[in-house]
């Protein structure tokens, strides 16, 4: 029987996973186009997802980039998970981490199909309608999919960073990942606190800045993961 390694999903040929995750990371930063495009939304105070709201002139663009990012991350996460299962070695942190990346991708793609109808942090009428339950059901569905996306991202960042250090794999991630994990947890705490205060009617508390920091760190971590997978070699 031949002992030559298989191509594609094998550990010796990780480039498909690296390519998909890297492209997904790039697409996930498309919201930075708000710096050069006139969106009419204050990036310090508004949700990132409000850029893709149905009543926004550039909503279609940002929904398309969100869907692309999610689809690429989902495919890359699924291939990464398949590589772990095919590998045969027992690395539970790796399996959990790639499952988290897969969940993140699927939920991010779902976000694009469940857009907000209006911008609650920028439009008081929209906020009042949302409080009164007079907005489409996609608002609640979007909140669920967004929560799942960030849960998947957090599981992926923590588990795969731990795996990289514990199993002595993915050297760049093992080296730089812990710092990104700490920053991501801090940004998440900031974002959740600001959302809670906004929901309680106490202002936005730079909600937009916190969430943009949160998603930007996820994109940086995905880029680092892609680079680490690309550099991975097994003897």
Structure keywords:
elongated, disordered N terminus, 235 residues, mainly alpha
The helix/strand order is: HHHHHHH
- What overall form do the CA principal axes indicate? elongated
What is the residue-averaged pLDDT?
Answer: 92
Helix content percent band: 55-70%
Question: How would you describe the overall organization of this protein?
Answer:
With about 240 residues, this protein is mainly alpha-helical. About 65% of the residues lie in helices and about 0% in strands. The chain has seven helices and no strands. The chain has helices at about 15-25, 60-85, 90-115, 125-130, 140-165, 170-200, 205-230. Helix 1 runs antiparallel to helix 2 (about 60-85). The two termini are about 20 Å apart. Mean pLDDT is about 90; it is low at about 1-10.
Give a quick summary of the entry.
With 235 residues, the chain is an all-alpha fold. It is 66% helix and 0% strand.
Give the helices and strands, then pairings.
Elements: H1 15-27, H2 59-87, H3 92-113, H4 124-131, H5 138-166, H6 171-199, H7 207-231
């Amino acid at each position: 029987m031949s002992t030559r390694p298989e191509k594609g999903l094998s550990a010796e040929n990780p480039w498909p996973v690296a390519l998909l995750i890297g492209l997904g990371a790039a697409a996930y930063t498309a919201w930075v186009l708000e710096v050069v495009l006139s969106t009419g939304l204050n990036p310090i105070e508004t949700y990132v997802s409000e850029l893709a709201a149905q009543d926004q002139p550039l909503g279609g663009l940002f929904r398309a980039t969100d869907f692309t990012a999610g689809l690429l991350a989902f495919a890359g996460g699924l291939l990464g998970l398949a590589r772990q299962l095919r590998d045969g070695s027992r690395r539970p942190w790796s399996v959990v981490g790639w499952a988290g990346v897969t969940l993140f991708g699927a939920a991010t793609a779902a976000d694009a199909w469940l857009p907000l109808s209006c911008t609650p942090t920028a439009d008081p009428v929209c906020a009042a309608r949302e409080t009164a339950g007079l907005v489409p059901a996609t608002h609640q569905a979007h909140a669920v999919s967004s929560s799942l996306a960030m849960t998947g991202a957090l599981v992926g960042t923590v588990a795969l960073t731990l795996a990289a250090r514990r199993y002595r794999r993915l050297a760049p991630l093992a080296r730089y990942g812990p710092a990104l994990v700490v920053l991501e947890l801090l940004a998440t705490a900031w974002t959740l606190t600001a959302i809670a205060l906004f929901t309680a009617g106490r202002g936005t508390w730079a909600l937009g800045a916190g969430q943009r920091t949160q998603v930007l760190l996820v994109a940086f971590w995905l880029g680092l993961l892609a680079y680490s997978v690309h550099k991975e070699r097994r003897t």
